[in-house]
Amino acid sequence: MRATLSSWACLSLSLLTCSWLCVTTENQCKIRNQVADCSHLKLKQIPSDLPINITALDISHNQLNKLPPENFTKYSQLTYLNAGSNTLSKLHPELCQILPLLKVLKLQHNQLYELTDNVFSSCSSLMELNLGYNIIKIKNNPFKNLKNLSILDLSHNRLLSTKLGSQTQLESLRELVLSENRITELKREELDFLSNTSLTRLDLSSNPLNKFHTGCLRAIGNLYGLVLNNMKLSENDTEKLCLELSGTRIQNLSLSQVQLSCIYKSTFQGLQTTNLTSLNLSKNYLLTIENESFAGLSNLENLNLEDNKIYNLTSHSLYGLSSVKYLNLRRSHVRKIDDFAFRWLSHLEELLLDGNSFQEITPNMFTGLDNLKYLSLCNWTNGLQIITNKTFSSLANSTLQFLNVTKSRITKIESGAFSWLGHLRILDLGLNEINQVLTGHEFKGLQNIEVIYLSYNKQLTLTSKSFAFVPSLRKLMLRKVACSSLDISPSPFHPLQNLTILDISNNNLANLKDDLFDGLHRLEILDLQHNNLARLWKHANPGSPVLFLKDLLNLHVLNLKSNGFDEIPVQVFKGLFQLRILDLGLNNLNLLPASLFDDQKSLNSLILQKNLITSIEEKVFGIVFKNLKELEMDSNPFDCTCESISWFVNWLNVTQTNIPGLDTHYLCNTPSKYHSTLVMHFDISPCKDSAPFKLLYIISTTLIMLLIFIVILIHFEGWRIAFYWTVSVNRVLGFTEIDRQQEEFDYDAYIIHARRDRKWVSKNFIPLEKNDQSQIRFCLEERDFEAGISKFEATINSIKRSRKIIFVVTEHLLKDPWCKKFKVYHAVQQAIEQSRDSIILIFLHDIPDYKLNHALCLRRGMFKSRCILDWPAQKERVNAFHQQLKMALKSSSKIH
Ligand SMILES: *[C@@H]1O[C@H](CO)[C@@H](O)[C@H](O)[C@H]1NC(C)=O
Ligand SMILES: *[C@@H]1O[C@H](CO)[C@@H](O)[C@H](O)[C@H]1NC(C)=O
Ligand SMILES: *[C@@H]1O[C@H](CO)[C@@H](O)[C@H](O)[C@H]1NC(C)=O
Ligand SMILES: *[C@@H]1O[C@H](CO)[C@@H](O)[C@H](O)[C@H]1NC(C)=O
Ligand SMILES: *[C@@H]1O[C@H](CO)[C@@H](O)[C@H](O)[C@H]1NC(C)=O
Ligand SMILES: *[C@@H]1O[C@H](CO)[C@@H](O)[C@H](O)[C@H]1NC(C)=O
Ligand SMILES: *[C@@H]1O[C@H](CO)[C@@H](O)[C@H](O)[C@H]1NC(C)=O
Ligand SMILES: *[C@@H]1O[C@H](CO)[C@@H](O)[C@H](O)[C@H]1NC(C)=O
Ligand SMILES: *[C@@H]1O[C@H](CO)[C@@H](O)[C@H](O)[C@H]1NC(C)=O
């Protein structure tokens, strides 16, 4: 049970820590592709549970004090065993018998002190043996059976001599490292055990070596490389050493840091009979190089003179170095280089002169360097000041491709300064003090130039022609050159149709035209960070926002960090479909317009850190977040409310995007309840059901709509509402009509008409009374009013005694003050009090509704259609009208 549990624990641990290929044992060794890494595990025992087919085992940095052969029997396939950095003091000769395939054995940093003759007797397949950093003293022949050994490291031991055996052996050895021992002399008989060996490298560095006995190095079968760094060699020792090397196959000789202060003609004489190709003389106190000291080193290809004190390089110092391809004179305190000093080096391809302090470049300084490809003249402590059209004239015959003159206090480049360098591809003028208007002629003649670095100079003023002579340019760096305005037409970049990288960052740039980058269809990287472009994208910018990115169809990387942007026009990134990296960090952005990033579907990396962003909404980021691999949006004042970040938190839960600092630098700012809590800890469960909010939204919208409806209704139909309202109120308050019977009324209708219509009324209504069997009785003012009572009273009484009220609507009626003010009012009042639909309108004239309303406060719409009658124009319709009138008079007056 416990075993199962622990293996389960192991399995899960291994799943956590390793990829699928690797398995972890109980000892936590990492096993991958038959390689077991058991280092740094404080092991005291050889792990016994590793797969038996492992071929490499690293048990270094543990606490093993022996390597018992029987504990390796399982691992007989091992070809590599690293037991370094343990506390081994003894080796068992049987180890190699158990591990017959072993090729590499590393035992460095142990406490081995004695190697018996048979200790490696079975290790004939061994190719590499590292015994460095032990306390070994060699007696007899411990290595004599290592017939295939190629590399033997015995550095940092207690060897007193080079003698590793008394008989010829180690035929296959290529590298022998004996550095950091106590070897004082090289004797022939102490190296002749290597008489059948071809060494490519013998390292004797850091030994107190001061005596080279005659024939010592010739005792070695072949010696191709000798390293003697970091010791003290006098001039005489060096000379003797070189004599000992004469006639050998030596190719590489390193004498770095050997305190060699002078080189004489005789110093390297011994090397003249060799094929030496590489000589390292760096870090010496080399002061004097006697003329023609290197003569005879005609095979030398690499000469390193870095970090010396060679003050004067005369015209013959380098005489004879006709094969040198690489010359390093960095920081060699060279003050003066005579004219034609390099003329001997006709094969030189790379010349490094950084960190020196010449007075000037003389007209023939580089003459003869016809094969020079790479020239580095950086960190010129005296200062190059002005580059004239003469400065590089001595390179006219070269095919220089790379020129680096950074940090050389250049203040001005004159017209035609590089006209000699037609092959130049890369020109680095950065970190100088150039202060000038670039007219374009500075770069005349650079017809193959691809890269120009001008970054970090004092002040460069660009003009439309600045780059007119270098249309082949691919990369242009103008960072921090105090070029604060690019308000130039036509744009200085227009000739650069091949440009792929442009850096104009850190310029405090505030002014540019929207066509600045037009035509740069190959531009892939644009650096505009640390400028002052905020105004250009403001809504309020005169002449609308400046959309200067619009033509950069192939842009991959855009850096707009730290520009003070607080507004972004929605169309600013439109068309930038290729954009992979967009940096908008360190600005003042708060609200980003919806669909701002809609064309950035393939963006990999979006940086918006240190802005004022409060909310992360789907309508802005939904599309751009889809393929994002990295997002940096930390240090914004996030508003931890459902509306602002719930979509973001949801996205965090499912995304694979790398978001550095998510668990430290994405903090809520508002509301105060969540201040300084982590955004990723924001609980979105209450947001998931947004129904309450939706409901609230719906209710409030409905209410507002309703209110608007009511207002409109009241405005246009208010009268009708008021009318029905009053009617209803009357009914409720008890003015209810007792639907009086026909008999209760004295008249069928009271007729209201204008005085001027009297004749028409008499003519048309009185005959109706007579003709009709139904006995209709109208109340006519003139005829039926009781005598003796006032006209007011009479009118009121008559209206009360009539079942219906007929209005004879004419233009006259509308103007008749008596009718308007009194009769109509009472008629309507009556109708209201009795809750009766008792009014009939007869229109003699065509009166529009608004006039009717205006004059009498009545509208057609107040009445049932059958109660509105129009006096027919044609005579033959009068009968029909009478019929309609009768129907209206007979209709019930109840309001339903
Ligand atoms: C070697 O194996 C034996 C028995 O398996 C064990 O007791 C011993 O501790 C092991 N020694 C080392 C150094 O692993
Ligand atoms: C090595 O052995 C392990 C089991 O111990 C086995 O899973 C693996 O396939 C073997 N590898 C090879 C290359 O034989
Ligand atoms: C070097 O050798 C010359 C003669 O060969 C001798 O005069 C000189 O003293 C020697 N210098 C040193 C430092 O041993
Ligand atoms: C130097 O090289 C040449 C040609 O490769 C060869 O003939 C000559 O033997 C070499 N000299 C020495 C000392 O190795
Ligand atoms: C270098 O040459 C100048 C004269 O050109 C001379 O004054 C000076 O002593 C020389 N320095 C060395 C170290 O040879
Ligand atoms: C520049 O040169 C000076 C003096 O030669 C040296 O001390 C300094 O380290 C150099 N700086 C660089 C960056 O190479
Ligand atoms: C170099 O510039 C000078 C003026 O400064 C001019 O007279 C001369 O012709 C120019 N030389 C070349 C080769 O352009
Ligand atoms: C360039 O080569 C030509 C012809 O070989 C020669 O006349 C001229 O002096 C050389 N110029 C330089 C600066 O090396
Ligand atoms: C020019 O040299 C400087 C300093 O040595 C180095 O930093 C820079 O990268 C070099 N320029 C190029 C283009 O390699």
Automatic annotation (TrEMBL):
Keywords: Disulfide bond, Endoplasmic reticulum, Endosome, Glycoprotein, Immunity, Inflammatory response, Innate immunity, Isopeptide bond, Leucine-rich repeat, Membrane, Phosphoprotein, Receptor, Repeat, RNA-binding, Signal, Transmembrane, Transmembrane helix, Ubl conjugation. Residues 1-24 form the signal peptide. Its main location: other. Pfam families: LRR_5, LRR_8, TIR, Tlr3_TMD. GO terms for molecular function: double-stranded RNA binding; identical protein binding; pattern recognition receptor activity; transmembrane signaling receptor activity; ubiquitin-like protein ligase binding. GO terms for biological process: cellular response to exogenous dsRNA; cellular response to mechanical stimulus; cellular response to virus; defense response to virus; extrinsic apoptotic signaling pathway; inflammatory response to wounding; innate immune response; JNK cascade. The keyword Cell division does not apply. It is found in: Early endosome; Endoplasmic reticulum membrane; Endosome membrane. Gene3D superfamilies: Ribonuclease Inhibitor, Toll/interleukin-1 receptor homology (TIR) domain. SMART domains: LRR_BAC (SM00364), LRR_SD22 (SM00365), LRR_TYP (SM00369), LRRCT (SM00082), TIR (SM00255). It comes from the Eukaryota. The chain crosses the membrane at residues 695-716. The keyword Repeat applies. InterPro entries: Cys-rich_flank_reg_C, Leu-rich_rpt, Leu-rich_rpt_typical-subtyp, LRR_5, LRR_dom_sf, TIR_dom, TLR3_TMD, Toll_tir_struct_dom_sf. GO terms for cellular component: early endosome; endoplasmic reticulum membrane; endosome membrane; plasma membrane. Residues 745-889 form the TIR domain. It is a single-pass type I membrane protein. Belongs to the Toll-like receptor family. PANTHER family: TOLL-LIKE RECEPTOR, TOLL-LIKE RECEPTOR 3. This is Toll-like receptor 3. It comes from Pelodiscus sinensis. The lineage of its organism: Eukaryota, Metazoa, Chordata, Craniata, Vertebrata.
